[in-house]
Amino acid sequence: xxxxxxxxxxxxxxxxxxxxxxxxxxxxxxxxxxxxxxxxxxxxxxxxxxxxxxxxxxxxxxxxxxxxxxxxxxxxxxxxxxxxxxxxxxxxxxxxxxxxxxxxxxxxxxxxxxxxxxxxxxxxxxxxxxxxxxxxxxxxxxxxxxxxxxxxxxxxxxxxxxxxxxxxxxxxxxxxxxxxxxxxxxxxxxxxxxxxxxxxxxxxxxxxxxxxxxxxxxxxxxxxxxxxxxxxxxxxxxxxxxxxxxxxxxxxxxxxxxxxxxxxxxxxxxxxxxxxxxxxxxxxxxxxxxxxxxxxxxxxxxxxxxxxxxxxxxxxxxxxxxxxxxxxxxxxxxxxxxxxxxxxxxxxxxxxxxxxxxxxxxxxxxxxxxxxxxxxxxxxxxxxxxxxxxxxxxxxxxxxxxxxxxxxxxxxxxxxxxxxxxxxxxxxxxxxxxxxxxxxxxxxxxxxxxxxxxxxxxxxxxxxxxxxxxxxxxxxxxxxxxxxxxxxxxxxxxxxxxxxxxxxxxxxxxxxxxxxxxxxxxxxxxxxxxxxxxxxxxxxxxxxxxxxxxxxxxxxxxxxxxxxxxxxxxx
Length: 571
Hints:
By secondary structure, this protein is α/β, with parallel strands linked by helices.
């Protein structure tokens, strides 16, 4: 597996501790940039370290390369050990609380002796936080809620990271000639946004060899079970991996059973019982006779229904649809014709416009929209009207050059201000092909204020897409308070497309909100929000989420040919 997430976490902790100590801002920013660079790498940082090419990574100089190498080789970094000694707090725990930054962490440590989630929760429950300067009762309440989010996040892994881990385990076990089938099951196969543990199913001619190899992988930090048909380990990154070896004639039944969800399986077993059958992980039985079990489709077919895609198996109506023959034909990655939300180094992206266009063309897109941030987001070097007009001229020249076969669309991610107005004048917005309006400030506005603010922005005749509509960051920040039903009504009235932001930390909208949006007739744009060329690959996670939301190709505007897509969003 790549060790990128693991290394990024170490660098982030060093940066947070340096910031806590009040070290020079340039040092803190260097670590912050390094975290972003490592997290966005398209290859394993450990492989680059072996080739002594760490300094080829943006923002990684000789000193940071030595820090990374030390960690990869020994599992320790001297500077981190020293910082942990000087700053005796669990800073990564506290930083995981949505809305809590270094300033607050330092305040509660110095005034109340808070060092971890438990001591912070105790102080909050005793009403001590509200007495501190700059906090108050409302902030205390938000911190209490955020602590629960942080606790959940500490035991969860982003789908993207878990898939990378599982892929590496697969590569190593598939080297064994005895392995006939290898499938990832559980919530990962259902493409849930975050993963608690990894379930792997294998068919093999020598189960003992598979298990002995599995528990001795170099990434294994502890073994909780080791048998001939089931083993369980914890990897160095902290995630648990369970491996089962199943016989060929039961593999389909086992795959169906261990894919879940629990609610889906309970209903499926009830249907089997009504037919006088018995369904378990070994097969579908009529009395003692096994009538299905070798493959999943046989299980569903024998129960009188179409095979249900794993992403839909949540007991959200998929079984009834399968019985009635009304399951949707779900969107696939190959259906995507373009990306309508991306950034360059002209705002907070890391690659030039040429580099982003080259990467998009490599995906054989028919169209691609460049949509950098606008002026109110100063932290992202947002563009003002003059810069945006120059960008419009630049894209006209790029299209005329003939270098790229796809259509380059002129766009911007425009900020929705506190009163619902936009931070770019209409006369400039009118010259853009795609305008995405997003919230980047005042995310703690109350439900009524936020809803009215967004709905007013959607009334602009120049807005086409509402970007990352709920503002959440998985395992980091909860959704802001907003009445999505009212937003959807406003979007429908104003011909606004809802974005499904494909970044693995966002996946915003969630599956249930996607279904709600399409039920009222809204269209969806699956966009990467890419800030690096490698982040264009995040489109796959958006498609996974779209499938969980029951979306077909027709629901997603960037599966349309260019002419149809543009006519669909036209005001």
